[in-house]
Structures are given as structure tokens and as C-alpha cells.
Sequence to fold (217 residues):
Amino acid sequence: MVESPGTPGQAARAASAARKPGRPSLSELKRREVRLEIARAAVRLFRAQGVEQTSAADIAAEAGVSPRTLWRYVPSKEEAVTVLFTLAAEGLATRLRELPPGEPLSALLLGEPWQDQMTPEIGRLVREATRLTQDEPALRKVAHQAAFAFQSGIAAAFAAREGRAEARLEDKVHAAMLLATLAVVEQEAAWCEPADEPRRSELLRRGLRVASAGLPL
Fold:
């Protein structure tokens, strides 16, 4: 079937072409907002009554969505908070690819937030979810899997900074070390108050110094 000028298919393609590279579509933004709303509900319930006592139906009701909608977005009740743990890693992978050659990685890590959606409210949710992982093994597993889901992307970004098309073992190790460092720092910083950014920055600097020194072999 040949589309005539101005058909919805052409309009959709034109809108897609007009978007800047890397900018999410409206549908992607909508899906992310739904995931964030589900995560908000899950954090509230997990904090109030624990993971074990919270059902998927409880989360759906708290988020104002149907159970069927909930299952379209998350495969398990524990993974309702996954989006909170992927924001930083996802943003880091993107910013690392954009980092000019020769600019030190520390300038990126100690600079502005890596994810545009990391608003004060989302930052609070991330801290609350991170605190929950210390007493909830199921959430700790989710946080670990979510953060390391971007390991290959970060390794590829390290390789690209060195002019290589594919990541080598060293790039993969560097990516794993960086993600592990950030995960530990987030655990430590989860108890910092929102206004205590200097404390969080100092924890990050300490973590990066340890990582850059390597293993005590």
C-alpha cells in the first residue's frame, strides 16, 4: 500500500527524523513515567510493610494501574523499582560516550548529574530504595542486576574513547570496576540528607581513589 502525503505513517517518520539523536520519543517518555509511578508506589509499600508482605496487586492499586498493566512493565514485584537503579548507569553510559577526548573521567563523575530525570524527588526515591536493599536481599539482587545491565555499554564507551571499535578485556574490567565503585558509594551515601551533597561528593572521591589505585595484589 502506497501512503499519500500527510498520512499518519509519514508524519510519524518525519517526527522521528526530526528528533535529535539520543532524545527519547514521546512513547518512551510515557513508558518511563509509568515505570517511575510504579516505582514510587513500590517504594512506599516496601518501606511501610516490607517486600514479603507486599503483593503485585498492592503495587498496582497504589500506582493507580491495573495488574495487567503492571505486568506489562515489570516482570516481578521486586523489579518494580528497577528503573530507579538504572537511571544513573544509563545516564553515565550516555555522558561517557559524549565526553570529549582527553577530558578526564573524574570531570564527568564529579560534575553535574548524569541523568536529566534525576530530579530531587527521584533522587530521594533512589536513596530510599537503596536503603531498602540493605535489609531486603531480593531488592539488593535487583539493584545489582540493574546497574550492571549497562556494563557492556560503558565498556564500549571506554573503547570508543581510545579509538577502538570493540571493547577489550581492559575496557570491560574498567566498566565493572566503575559500576561496582558507584554501587558501593550509593550504598554509603543513601543515608546522607539531600542537602549533604559535599558528603556524597567526598564519598565518591574516596571511592574513585580506591578504584584508580587498583586491587592490593
Summary: Residues 192 and 199 are 7 Å apart (CA to CA).
